[in-house]
Please model this.
Amino acid sequence: MDFHALIKMHRLPGPKLLLFLVLLALYLATACRTVGPGDSGELIAVMCGWGVAHAPAFPLFVLAGNVLSHLVQTSEPAFALNLMCSLFSALACVALAHAVTLMTGRPWAGFAAGLMLGTSAVFWQYALVTEVFGLNALMAALLLLLLARVLRGIEERRPVLWPLPLLALVMSTSITHHLTLSLLALPVLVVLAVQSRPLIRSGVSGRAVSRTIAWSVVAGLSGLVLLLYIPLAARHDPPLNWGDVRDIGGLMRVLLRQDFGTGMLTPPYVVVDQILKTGERASPLGMRHFGFFWRDLPQSFGWLFPMLAACGLIWVARRSRPVLLLSVLFAVAIVFFFTRVNAPVVPLYLGITRPFYILPHVFLAFLGGLGLAWLMERAAKLHRAAPVVLGAFAIAGTGLAMMFAQWSRVDMRMNAFTRDFGANLIAGMPARAIFLSNGDLFRNSFFYQQTCLGRRPDITLVEQSMMAASWYVRQLRRRRALALPETMTMYTAEPNTQSKAWLDLNLKPATDSLRRPIVAVSLIDGSYASDYRLLSVGLWSEVVRKNESVDVFEWANRSLGAARRWAVASLARDYPETSWEGSEGIFYPYALGRLRALLDMASAADPARSDSAEVPALREAERWRGHRRAEYLAYQADFWQTCITDSLFASRQWPSSLLATRAMALAESSLAIDPANLQALQTIAALRSTVARFRDPVEELRIRRRIVEGRPGDTAELVLYFRLVMSIMRDSALRDPALFDDAQVVRLRFVRLLEICMRCSNAPELAQLHQRWTMPLESAIAAR
Model:
């Protein structure tokens, strides 16, 4: 191997050094100072505790982060890890710039390509937080760089073999880091195979070829040694230990993402749930995400970029058949990839899908650099200064323009949403509590607080959704984290594996000194409701037996005490709809709406026992406008309405007339802001159905029709709507054939939704539902 050439290749001449410094300074100025959104909380917690991340575990990335986090000790471990990802992203752009320079001989075309990529919206956004995509982009850029070096050697009849073992090593990261890299690695491998004959014809000895092949095999296999990190880390049972890998079968389960549905981006049940909740617009069928990818290009890169990428294809077609072959193969791979992108088309999942644009963006930026080089070459024939002017124009019109245009949109410097949420979540939790979590935001923000910042080590988190995996239940048993029914190997539809069974075993009598309080975000099934209630205290609720006495005033003051400790900066910020924060921020209106209602109820009953001190979080909530204001009012209304039948409030202090009147007023105020607010509509429908002075079947039907318009696949709401239709049709004074016809329209829409869901998932219950609702309406309602 020519190590001298290897060292020489990594020297950073002027344009590449400038590119590196510009991007690193840009990322440093805009990087998140704490834990970022999405999976960042989990990844950072894993990197601070030698843990195992969610499948496919990313051992290369996690190992690098663990080394850094233990070498660099800071009060905010996330910041150092965010900067590590910024470094990976800046190096990816430099490697891409060098690849373009090697192919074209024009360093400033390479600079432009690197700057285009580095300032594109999605790439820049994910360079600022701890995420896996920056390292994946670096590996993709290295594949292009090393391939360019091989092709340049063949073209100049000075073949080089030393890049081949490095290519094999980088390709191995398809398994040790991110499988999507194979979408580029496999086409590169095909191009190398096609170029093997020209390489041999150029004078390379057979002995050198054999030695290089041997080195390549060794390099590729040595890269896979990193996979040993997963079982070795799992054996130490760290706090985050996805898959609980103990054997080859467990390792393969993690690498193949079997818990998510191998070969799919999103578990099918998630897709079905979102389609049924929001309707046909959530369906990912018809390659919709592929269309979103192309529409995002001018938004991420600017309108000049697509023209440069198209010119790059012209350059490739005229100058380099190997790169043309690579382009075709990669395009086929990307089309195939998007056939597997099944994320529901709703704001949260659109945001989750966008980082997968980064890999094709790397290749498109490569083409953009080649296209600029071709234009500069043609411009040189017109005037000596023309290439300089053209290059400056392209750099200004792409990278520099997007730098200024995107800055405020991607800037993460002041984003502390996840850290603050975790701090607010644990505020007021009782000592030694078992926390039944449900969802990435709660789990990731909690683990960042506990594992990375060392707060509340006395609390044990149990992720309810993961109890459907047998390895997780075994892990809980081994850690004695949660007493479980003897017959339970995983969560199923059987009663002895559901929430009531867990609570019966874990909520010991109050006299038991070993009793641990249980708190929850929510419980994933309704089996608990016969014997237990949830008392909301901020972002969590305490689980208590229904026969236990509860002092409402003490409950209100305890909730108030927890909310006073909240960090409120994140509550005052507005976030984009497709962002993690924009979608997950709904928990704040829910928690603060219920708190406001509880405090108002306590004050109405006995002002002397109520704490009137100001709460910063509630003060911020009162300033909300638009959608958040509507949600805040709707959850207050819901709380007042549910208390009508709650035994805690069945007294002279809270007459049902007071509860109903206040609930109706709040719900109507919410609808005045947002007429489609489902929570407010459901509250009004319940009041129209159960409260005598509000009872109005026709008005209730109108409200329920609006509900099923917004939730077209919610079977509980559909049954309530259809039963009300049939009840009205039996009343001669109210009977209207148009109502029945409209109900048939709703039923047929539900059937069409089920047909869409059946194309997204093969779950047998979907076919059963479809069979039921294709029957006549009367039979469908009566069926069980």
